[in-house]
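Two proteins follow. First one:
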Amino acid sequence: MTNPGGRAPGTLEEPQVRAMFDRIASFYDVMNSVMTAGLHHRWRARAADLARVGPGDRVLDVATGTGDLAFELARRVGPRGEVVGSDFAREMLARARDKARDAELGVRFEWGNALELPYPEDGFDAATVAFGARNFSDLDRGLAEMVRVVRPGGRVVVLEITTPTRPPLSTFYGLWFDRVVPLIGRITGETDAYTYLPNSVKRFPAPPALAAAMAAAGLGELQYVVTAGGIIAIHAGTKGA
């Protein structure tokens, strides 16, 4: 059946995605930990490793959400470095700022749309995104913007959920995302959010296709790691001269 609004079932327009993340900001961290058994922190640390940043570097975390990857990066760049977390959901940014104060980590959180980043070219040593690229309404444009703001030789890293292809994990994964996650949505009163989540993962390119898109955006030395039994993919590339 065709959706009367012209959208595929389980998809949302950009303003709806923004509003959805504003609504779920207060319990976003708890749900992340529940749905990943707390492993998302380990995956973010791996992404920070692949960014290859160190003391004094300047890093942009795109679609930063409540800031967990930004905090991991801040520990790598130290007090002489700078981490900027950018997001278009103001309630997520408010939560990130609260966490930064509690942890005494000097990350600067700013409003910004990933498809039109408000930063000059070549301004950062690395740009990262964790569990946010699948929310880009135009993936190619979002990747191009991340490449644009990174200096030549700098790194772009994408951490995302991917779809495992081998049983038994693929079977469990299907049950989890098709049944358990929507049930969570009904319990929390956020049916749209937790229907959108599994559909956004299914629509997202498989690791080889994402690597090709990153290459088309101007990145070389591409590598990706598929971990957690095939559920998580971390891609990284280097901007050419």
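Second one, unrelated to the first:
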Amino acid sequence: MLLALSATAIVIVVLLWEVMAPTVAEWWERHRARRAVVPGFDHDPGRERRAEQRARQLLKSCVNEEEWAMYRDLGFIRVWGRGGEGVEYAYLIYPHKPIIAYLPQTGVLLNEYCVEFLDEERPYGSRRLPDSDDVLAKWMALTGDERRLIDSANMHLPGRQVDPKMVRRDLWRLSQWERRRIAGDRRRDAGQLPA
């Protein structure tokens, strides 16, 4: 009787091991991976912040004063379209979002143009560019060769990736920002504000 119970216990243990072994092995590998030290990777929590600061300085040196102030104050840049059709249109450039085309006269949203610029040289972490570098890359592509960028982008109708309500709110913020800027320029020209 004791021999039969011992044999049954051994069979149960072997069967449980067969069922549990892959799960235990997977758990052990995940545990080892979490505790592993990656050679040559020194985590620096301030690296991304410093990269963004350098990117902001570069963006400021490349765009005009109005575009820089717009990005600094609003978080996006407007670029005027160069189409020769006689219709005035513009783009809003956001960091890591599609480029939004719209009609400034009416605020009608036309399209979203999805483009992505990656940091292929980055030896650590994400290949995603800092926010200001992403805006600069889109700005350079639009101002350098608008047609080529638009033709190569994935085009979608408004609202596919960017909430149209947010864009309309940003267009309203842009109009308010421009009014304040124009009023400040007039007061400065009248000698009421220091230059």
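SUMMARY FIELD: The chain is about 55% helix and 10% strand. The chain has two domains: 1-31, 49-189.
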